[in-house]
Amino acid sequence: MFGPSESVAVTDEIKLVLFDMDNVLCDYDRGKRVASLAELAGTSSEAVHAAIWDSGFELLGDSGAIDAADYLRGFGERIGYPLSLDEWVEARRRSMQADLAMLEMARRLRDTVDIAVLTNNTTLVADHIDTLLPDLRPLFGSRIYTSAQFKTAKPDPRCYRLCLSELQAAPETVLFVDDLAANVAGAREAGLFAHHYNSVEAFRQTLSEHGLLQGE
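Above: the chain's sequence. Below: its structure in token form.
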């Protein structure tokens, strides 16, 4: 049996393509980010990863359980260094590289459907997206959403539904694309079509099945 975006004869009209950011619209190297933070703090990458990611602290930021100020302060406390906002942003920026092929796909899609971004991240990412990934604003405008603003995170179906409410879009008219299988499953549970991203070519095929690529 086919999943929503796996059908060979898709007939539903997609009006919005909703993109994940990290490892979809950009290559994200967490190891590079962790190394930058470890250098600042005078500690090891293993210690930083354990303090922030293994501990579940990053998820608190992603899910909006703590606000941006408490997140930044807590981040510094956990790595043993008074991390400034500029330093946090710079470490994040160094870990991200735009995926030009996917951004071109988004540009083409914008001619026929709405496009938006939903990323599991603290609100700091949306607030500083023009520094972190300046290629996004010209394509997506203000439609760049972080999970934290909805006080939940993917793959919780509520995260997608709250984002679509903000976008005034019905789930059955939305195609979501994410590199993580769990997030794809959560989107489908919320009623969206969803594509598990692993290559530009496979994503192009899904778009073609939905009739979203003009001239192909």
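The chain has a mean pLDDT of 94.
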